Amino acid sequence: MPTPTDRRYTKEHEWVRVENDLGTVGITDYAQDQLGDIVYLDLPSPGTQVKQMEKLGEIESVKAVSELYSPISGEVVEVNQEVIDRPELVNQSPYDEGWLVRVRLADTAEVDNLLTPERYDQYVAQAQET
Amino acid sequence: MTLPYIANTAADRQAMLNAIGVASVEELFADIPAEFRVDGLNLPSALSEPELVRDLSSLAASNRPVDSMPCFLGGGAYRHFIPSVVGEVIGRSEYATAYTPYQAEISQGTLQTAFEFQSMVCELTAMDVANAGMYDGASALAEACLMAAGVTGRRRIAVLSTVHPHHQAVVRTYAFGRDLAVDVLPPDGLALSGEHACLAVQQPDFFGYLQPDIEALEKTAHEAGALFIVSVDPISLGLFQPPGEYGADVVIGEGQSLGSPLSFGGPYLGLFACRQQYLRHMPGRIVGRTVDAQGRTGYVLTLQTREQHIRRERATSNICTSQQLVALAATVYLAAMGRQGLRQVAELCYHKAHYAAQRIAHLSGYSLPFDGLFFKEFVVRCPQPPSEVNRALLERGIIGGLDVSQHVENGLLLCVTEMNTRQEIDRLVEALAEIGGSG
Amino acid sequence: MKSGPRQPDIGARLTFDLSKPGRRACSLPACDVPAAELPERLLRRELSLPELSQVDVVRYFLALSRLNYSVDSGFYPLGSCTMKYNPKVHEELARLAGFTGLHPLQPSETAQGALALMYDLQRWLAEITGLDAVGLAPAAGAQGELTGILMVKAYLADRGEDGRTRVLVPDSAHGTNPATAAMAGFEVISVASDRQGNTDMQALASALDDGVAALMLTLPNTLGLFDPNAGRIADMLHDKGALLYGDGANLNALLGRARFGDMGFDVVHMNMHKTFSTPHGGGGPGSGPVAVKSHLAPYLPTPVVEKDDDRFALATPERSIGRVGLFYGQFGVLVRAYAYLRSLGDEGLRQVSENAVLNANYILARLRQAYHLPYDRRCMHEVVFSGSRQRAKGVRTWDIAKRLIDYGFHPPTVYFPLIADEALMIEPTETESKEALDAFCEALLAIDREAEEEPQVVKESPHTAPVGRLDEATAARRPVLRWRREAGDGS
Question: What's the CA gap between B116 and B382, in Å, rounded?
Fold first, then answer.
């Protein structure tokens, strides 16, 4: 699955797509593949304040738990109820239907701290070599 | 000497050493520094099988088990009838010599019976979900209190003073670990604060009595934002209203009564059930139902991300057992007793205990200090210290009750189950009359 | 092609589904006393337990038992679990009425045999571990761990050392170690292993300061390796005022060879169901006694058994951490462990460790050409391989495990310890014969060839088990955790 070019990435394999001051957050195709069948998501409720690269929530596969980090700071304004009910959406459509939360950005300049799609691809390629 | 449990012959061992490429077994222990090697332990010499049978039979024979004389002792461990089918099933080595069902395809026996167990505990308690079992009722209560602290983020545990003292003690031990405060509160004038994570009560209580107003306790807990934890005697649930119907958030119980012998206090079984919303906070193993690629129904360990082997220091508990074989005994027991059998056992306990209480209450010098409703245990106030009464009963070939004089002046806690015949009860009454000086 | 009727879906029918109103599986006596009045208001209205005949009950549970693999059915090399054979005579002895019929609260003069047994077991376990005192109360290994770490906490608190808030745990440790330390209120600090699979002494030195309460060390460790620095590690900890906790899960390798106490451990837990051959029961009951040096003895959980002249009695140690269970531990399990020790004696124990270690090293020697050995040295009672070579061929360790089922074996522990990639952790135990080990090794070698020649067969295995690979993802996503009456199924 090609890495979409309309968003930015973290080294923890989250993505954010920013439209105006609203950021949609999810995990990458590489991340969902590494995790395997995703069975449960623990996401913050709307109104929660999150900080860039601090814990956003947890994602569980059958035999692993991983922390999710927020790519940007701000307030959670929406949680994807569809993925709560059907966590497999994250496996099936990590960049689209499998988004996790929407965050109202506190500081749009923070986006510059994140990886571009090209840099993210390089990062993943390196990770796979070692 | 060749041990019967070791198959390798001298020739086998030599062939294996050759394959490994070492001259002696000692070389395989080379990583142990010489200063720490030991040669010979101070242990008794080995016994052959017939000698072993003699040794243990003689130890067993020097005990006086409850089957050898009438017994009216309860206090958390109960003598109930165990149908033969229970022993037959748990004696099967297919169940007894398997381990944790990590490989579901060859563990369906263990997994499906665990699912049965969870289902039966849910039915019995009228709760949404149950785990596959815990060490005993006391540790299940302690784990329930820790869970409540985790759910609420609060750091005080409230336990009613009529909860079994040993259960209270185990709660204190576990609370010490998590640095939680434990408040033991009397039922009268009960008040909780906003710092309390839970209110733990026992039904029937340690003294055998049903809570006079369980709804009020539930209300007190919930108004304080605390979880309402109820500890039950599962046999009593054959007769009485289940905790799910009076607002319990967590129900725990001692499952020994369900098909396990007294066995000097263990192995017993912790029952643990809760409301759906607390599922992911629940300690212990959980089995779920699913299918294979061909659509055949099967069972697996599930929601394992709560557990220590995955979540490590952030696990809901460090427990990694479900007391499986004892839970299987409970499952077979409940299947064998069934809907009518459990009710009948509970009714027999109730009627016999009331018969005994009424007769004892009529003896001069004896009285019933509490007027509440009881199930199979009740407190008698004796004319002498209960320790003396018990000693005198033992001289007459009867195991008496539990001395609760620390809690009730000259209080003796007596237990009567379906295993006590009318004749035994009458013998007890006559003996008590004699001991009390009115016989 | 199979002919004949389609096999029934055993898993789809629970006792609840077989139930028919009015059936009974056992009989109870009629009430021989006058009935008392029942409190109508408090009675339950509905109790949906199944109603079965005795034949139904027996057939149902026997049919299910046949779906289990067990030690009595075959080789069960589940690493770190010590699945040794469980002697039958112990079962018979543990069921003697003189043991099973004892009420825990009956007068101690009527239970002297049981107390004597516990007393001797305490002494023998102290001798085996080289420690001073033993408590039998913990119900399982994990509860033994919790007991041990709580004793450390109470001991340090009494010495005014409350500032020690951290427990060190090697990265090779079983998950119960960090979970236990957290339950005891400690912060968990992971300590790396070095390339030989031992504790990284530099990592340990840098993690060790005045805030450390204890290190939890499994010996031999979960790689099946004896850490030759164990004694030095004890000294390092003691120099800093911290204690050394021993996880005795792998004690089988050390029986009669080396003792925790001699190496400087302060507290150790043991697993009766592993080392001392008590049946694992499908996941309990276990039993997890703790053994301690004399400075921790006053903190043992209550009760311990003491001897005064010729009489045995239960006692509470002076600074006891309190109760960890309802009564005195898993007595029925202790009877079996006692019987095991009594039948082995000192010489028998040495034969156990000798053959356990020999068997593991034999497997190591036979499989090392085909399977990668991430820590290439002699092992103790178990050997950890990596399935990395097979993974390169597209077959995961998980697939190898499932394929072993088709060859008639229980798979080893897989994906643990975490520090070995695609881990296969094999513990043969001493009770297996060379022939059994050879057959098992042949199977793993055959699977390695299959991974090359017909990987699909491996990846779709097992083919011969009662059910195929089960859908664990759906089980976790939409949990079905209990039987429920289906709509319209109101029979």
Answer: 45
> Does residue B352 lie within any of the structural domains?
yes
Test A88 with C472 for CB contact under 8 angstroms. no
- Partners of B177 on chain C (C-beta within 8 Å) are 146, 149-150, 153, 183-185
**Residue A76 belongs to what domain range?**
10-129
| Complex prediction ipTM | 0.98
Are residues B327 and B343 located together in one domain of the fold? no
Interface contacts (A, C; CB < 8 Å): 16
**Of the candidates B332, B358, B383, which is a domain's last residue?**
B332
Domain that holds residue B264: 85-332
Q: How far is CA C115 from CA A36, B69, C312, in A?
A: 52, 20, 6
Q: Which residues of A touch B304 (CB under 8 A)?
A: 62-63
Q: Does A82 map to a domain?
A: yes
- Write out the residues of chain C at the interface with chain A, using a CB-CB cutoff of 8 A: 415, 472-473, 476-477
User: Using an 8 Å Cβ cutoff, are C83 and C77 in contact?
Assistant: yes
Same domain flag for B347 and B384: yes
Do residues C462 and B105 lie in contact, with contact meaning Cβ atoms separated by under 8 Å? Answer: yes
Q: Is C470 on the interface with B (CB under 8 A)?
A: yes
With contacts defined as CB-CB under 8 Å, which chain B residues touch C33?
351-352, 355, 422, 425
Read off the DSSP letter of residue C193.
B
Which residues are within 8 A (CB) of B415 and not within 5 positions of it... i.e. 6 or more apart?
Answer: B72, B73, B74, B75, B78, B208, B353, B376, B377, B401, B402
What pLDDT, on the 0 to 100 scale, is given for residue B1? 57
- Give the per-residue pLDDT at B296: 95
- Asked which of B332, B349, B368 is the last residue of a domain, the reply is B332
Query: Is A1 part of any domain?
Result: no
**Contacts B314 to A, Cβ<8 Å:** 65
Q: Which of the residues C388, C397, C477, C480 would you substitute to probe the A interface, choosing the one with the greatest number of A C-beta atoms within 10 Å?
A: C477
pLDDT category of residue C3 using cuts at 50, 70 and 90? low
**Is B364 in the same domain as B303?**
no
- Domain count across chain B: 2
Q: Can you read off the two tokens belonging to residue B157? A: 């545990």
Kindly report the nearest CA distance between residue B301 and chain A, in angstroms.
10
Closest-CA residue to C363 (of C374, C378, C347, C348): C378
> With contact defined as beta carbons under 8 Å apart, do B335 and B357 qualify?
no
Task: Kindly list the residues from chain B whose CB atom is less than 8 angstroms away from the CB atom of residue C154.
Answer: 176
Asked if B305 reaches chain A (Cβ–Cβ under 8 Å), the answer is yes
CATH of the domain at B361: 3.90.1150.10
Tell me the CATH number at A56: 2.40.50.100
Q: Which tokens belong to C179?
A: 């979970």
pLDDT band at A130, cuts 50/70/90? low
pLDDT digits (tens, 9 = 90+) for B393-435: 999 999 999 999 999 999 999 999 999 999 999 999 999 999 9
What does the pLDDT read at residue B175?
A: 98
Angle between helices B49-61 and C331-367 (to 10 degrees): 150
Beta-bridge partners for A24? A17, A102
Give the integer Cα–Cα distance in Å for C81 and C83.
6
Which of B304, B305, B308 to mutate against chain A (most A CBs within 10 Å)? B305
Instruction: Tell me how close the Cα of C157 comes to any Cα of chain B, in angstroms.
Output: 11
B358 interfaces chain A, CB cutoff of 8 Å? no
**Shared domain check, B346 and B362:** yes
Q: Is residue B185 part of a domain?
A: yes
- The total domain count for chain A is 1
Q: What domains does chain C contain, in order, with CATH numbers?
A: 89-344 (3.40.640.10), 352-475 (3.90.1150.10)
CATH number reported for the structural domain that contains residue B327 in this entry: 3.40.640.10
Residue B180 shares a structural domain with residue B324: yes
pLDDT for the residue numbered C185? 97
Chain C's closest residue to A35, CA to CA, is C473
- Per-residue model confidence (pLDDT) at position B309: 86
In a domain, A102, yes or no: yes
Selected residue of C19, C51, C65, C73 to mutate for chain B interface (largest B Cβ count, 10 A): C65
Give the model's confidence band at C8: pLDDT under 50 very low, under 70 low, under 90 confident, else very high: confident
- Tens of pLDDT, residue by residue over C461-481, are 999 999 999 999 999 999 999
Q: What residue in A sits closest to B311 (Cα-Cα)?
A: A65
